[in-house]
Design goal:
Elements (H helix, E strand, L loop, with lengths): L4 E4 L4 H17 L3 E7 L20 H19 L5 E7 L2 H8 L5 E5 L13 H9 L4 E4 L9 E5 L6 H14 L3 E7 L19 H22 L5 E7 L2 H8 L5 E5 L13 H9 L4 E4 L5
Parallel strand pairs: 1-2, 1-4, 2-3, 4-5, 6-7, 6-9, 7-8, 9-10
Antiparallel strand pairs: 5-10
């Protein structure tokens, strides 16, 4: 059986949007949808002899049950015949969802949670899980009900191989085209780019041809496995992060690897993936590869 699709639920509008997206993903996979709510003990210091905090007495259980009931209703509106289960855990949401990722086929979270500050474009939960989760992590963000192709952020790195496979799988599931975008410049695709990476004198024609060849080679085995997916290849010379963010405006979903070419070993999440998680105009999936 397909492992469940897990979605973090906290009652916020963002998490409810994530429930709907997760329900559709579960329906496409023929998988169960698992609604998970986690709450930690309050960080207050009770006075000596004070009454211990009691979740049941505080009405927490009733509140959580109501939240999950609304989430299940939202899920069944999207996919009526979906198998849905609920899980309530006492613990830090980050750790609870990270544990859930070990047995999930996909982990889905919203881009903002309860208690988030308006200036934060992405809650800490999404960033942490994209870096530490053990399955692909989908962060629901950007414009509502996006249409268009699945956008693959291709960089040719070993870690990016998982992203290629996942992008083809998602395009096949959604009956969508795949746009494989490879962005290059004269700087390393590491964490930082110089102020003007396009101004270095190089043989641009030769580098463009090499990048096109590398992209085709990375796609070839997956095109053979998924002949039903129409693929558009696009190789552009530009700044990596702005080009991908702009392209996300025409996509229904962006798929990126957890780490990219030139990344430092100690970084669990690459700068390009982080930029997409913060600024993409559609949902983003971060794929986990071997060793990431």
């Amino acid at each position: 059986m397909t492992n469940p699709v897990v979605v973090g639920v906290d009652g916020s509008p963002s998490s409810m949007d994530a429930v709907e997206v997760a329900a559709r993903e579960a329906g496409l996979r023929g998988a169960e949808l698992r609604l998970v709510h986690a709450f930690g003990w309050p960080s207050i210091h009770l006075p000596p002899g004070g009454t211990p905090w009691n979740p049941a007495a505080a009405g927490v259980r009733e509140m959580v049950d109501g939240t999950l009931a609304k989430a299940e209703e939202r899920a069944r509106e999207a996919v009526p015949e979906l198998a849905v289960t609920r899980e309530v855990a006492v613990g830090e949401p980050l750790m609870v969802l990270e544990i859930e990722s070990h047995t999930a086929s996909l982990l889905v979270v919203g881009s903002r949670g309860l208690g988030g500050f308006g200036g934060l474009l992405l809650g800490s939960t999404g960033v942490h899980l994209a870096a530490h989760g053990r399955c692909p992590v989908l962060v629901v963000r950007g414009r509502p009900d996006p249409e268009g192709p699945v956008l693959l952020a291709s960089d040719g790195s070993p870690a990016g191989e998982a992203a290629v496979g996942l992008a083809f799988a998602e395009a096949s599931l959604h009956g969508a085209d795949l746009l494989a975008l490879r962005v290059w410049n004269t700087w390393s695709d590491g964490a930082d780019e110089p102020a003007h990476p396009l101004d270095v004198v190089v043989d641009a024609g030769r580098l463009q041809a090499l990048e096109e060849q590398a992209l085709e080679e990375s796609l070839r085995p997956w095109r053979e496995r998924h002949p039903e997916v129409a693929v558009e290849r696009r190789v552009v010379r530009s700044r990596v992060r702005p080009a991908l963010i702009e392209a996300s405006g025409e996509a229904r979903l962006v798929v990126a690897g957890a780490r990219g070419r030139g990344g430092f070993t100690g970084l669990l999440l690459g700068s390009v993936s982080q930029a997409l998680l913060h600024h993409a105009r559609c949902p983003v999936v971060v794929a986990r590869g071997a060793g990431t």
